[in-house]
């Protein structure tokens, strides 16, 4: 039997390219996303949702649809050297390219269209949203559950900014977004080239940085 899934909303995100997007929700608290519901969904569709702190967002990994999928993948948490079954990971390269994120619900605008403002996002700009559900702690929180090869939050990089590159012209929220995103080490797990300059497009900026050891240095920032 074949089913058709139609997106109900679109994510407006500061992440303009796949490189740099947080690998898991909640790792970059400063990453705010606006989920814009399609015009047919009115304020009635979100009535009562304002009483929940978190929401489950089901979405489509639209940025990798043309890359196919594989039975086994190399999770970044294992250094990109060990394979795991795709269903034992959260890889975007899945048979149906469906994703699930738990985001902090900051506020709701019930105009036309309806907007859900969330933080801790790991969504690429333009991501098609296919469902929204409230997070219910007593049902879904299992703090003592086994988590396989994923043991705790990944170690973060220490991020510093070179002087005189214009960082003082950025808002504090933008600086936090950039620093927190780089701190997650967006490099492919197998890549460790200290002299390489990485480029990340985030909000309206192109950010250039280098990584050596557990330190990252922002060396240039320009308006796109």
Automatic annotation (TrEMBL):
<dbReference type="GO" id="GO:0032259">
    <property type="term" value="P:methylation"/>
</dbReference>
<feature type="domain" description="TsaA-like">
    <location>
        <begin position="5"/>
        <end position="144"/>
    </location>
</feature>
<dbReference type="InterPro" id="IPR023370">
    <property type="entry name" value="TrmO-like_N"/>
</dbReference>
<keyword id="KW-0489">Methyltransferase</keyword>
<dbReference type="InterPro" id="IPR036414">
    <property type="entry name" value="YaeB_N_sf"/>
</dbReference>
<dbReference type="InterPro" id="IPR036413">
    <property type="entry name" value="YaeB-like_sf"/>
</dbReference>
<dbReference type="Pfam" id="PF18389">
    <property type="entry name" value="TrmO_C"/>
</dbReference>
<dbReference type="Pfam" id="PF01980">
    <property type="entry name" value="TrmO_N"/>
</dbReference>
<keyword id="KW-0808">Transferase</keyword>
<dbReference type="InterPro" id="IPR040372">
    <property type="entry name" value="YaeB-like"/>
</dbReference>
<dbReference type="InterPro" id="IPR041369">
    <property type="entry name" value="TrmO_C"/>
</dbReference>
<keyword id="KW-0949">S-adenosyl-L-methionine</keyword>
<dbReference type="InterPro" id="IPR023368">
    <property type="entry name" value="UPF0066_cons_site"/>
</dbReference>
<dbReference type="GO" id="GO:0008168">
    <property type="term" value="F:methyltransferase activity"/>
</dbReference>
<protein>
    <submittedName>
        <fullName>tRNA (N6-threonylcarbamoyladenosine(37)-N6)-methyltransferase TrmO</fullName>
    </submittedName>
</protein>
<comment type="similarity">
    <text>Belongs to the tRNA methyltransferase O family.</text>
</comment>
């Amino acid at each position: 039997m074949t089913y058709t899934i139609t997106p109900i909303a679109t994510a407006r995100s500061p992440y303009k390219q796949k490189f740099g997007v947080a690998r898991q929700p909640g790792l970059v608290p400063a990453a705010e996303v606006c989920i814009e519901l399609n015009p047919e969904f009115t304020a009635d569709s979100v009535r009562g949702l304002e009483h929940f702190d978190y929401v489950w967002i089901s979405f489509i990994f639209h940025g990798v649809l043309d890359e196919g999928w594989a039975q086994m993948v190399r999770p970044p948490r294992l250094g990109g050297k060990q394979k795991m079954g795709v269903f034992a990971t959260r890889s975007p390269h899945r048979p149906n390219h469906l994703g699930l994120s738990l985001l902090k619900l900051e506020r709701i605008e019930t105009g036309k269209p309806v907007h859900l403002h969330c933080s801790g996002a790991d969504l690429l700009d333009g991501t098609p949203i296919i469902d929204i559900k409230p997070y219910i702690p007593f049902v879904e929180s299992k703090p003592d559950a086994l988590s396989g090869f994923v043991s705790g939050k990944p170690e973060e990089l220490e991020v510093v900014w070179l002087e005189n590159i214009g960082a003082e012209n950025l808002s504090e929220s933008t600086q936090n977004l950039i620093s927190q995103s780089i701190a997650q080490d967006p490099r492919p797990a197998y890549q460790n080239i200290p002299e390489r300059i990485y480029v990340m497009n985030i909000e309206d900026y192109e950010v250039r940085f280098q990584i050596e050891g557990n330190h990252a240095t922002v060396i240039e920032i320009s308006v796109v």
